[in-house]
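Researcher: Checking consistency across runs. Here is Winged helix-turn-helix transcriptional regulator again:
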Amino acid sequence: MAKHEPDLSPLFHALADPTRRSILTRLAEGPAPVTELARPTGLRLPTVMRHLSVLEEAGLIATSKDGRVRSCAIVPEALTPIRTWLDEQRAIWEARLDRLDDYVTQLMKERER
């Protein structure tokens, strides 16, 4: 991996779990306390806290504490490296498919002759 490329593994690991993705989807609406994030999952609070820890370590969320209430907020710019990587991959594969299309078109024209 080139030195300028960020390590995408923690981001993809964080996004690999459906519970964490649903938490991010909820946080896209706005910050929320941990108890609110835990409620729809049906999971115990320590389990949800582990999921939040993975999201925070990947830089996808930020947490804050006000008294006894811990709240979370999404960090949308943390998805930029993934978006950049996916755009690069899309460009590579579109170029390959374009070349394949050109090749097949050329073969078809030669076959018609």
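Researcher: Does this match what you'd expect to see?
Model: One thing to look at in this run: The CA atoms of residues 88 and 109 lie 32 Å apart.
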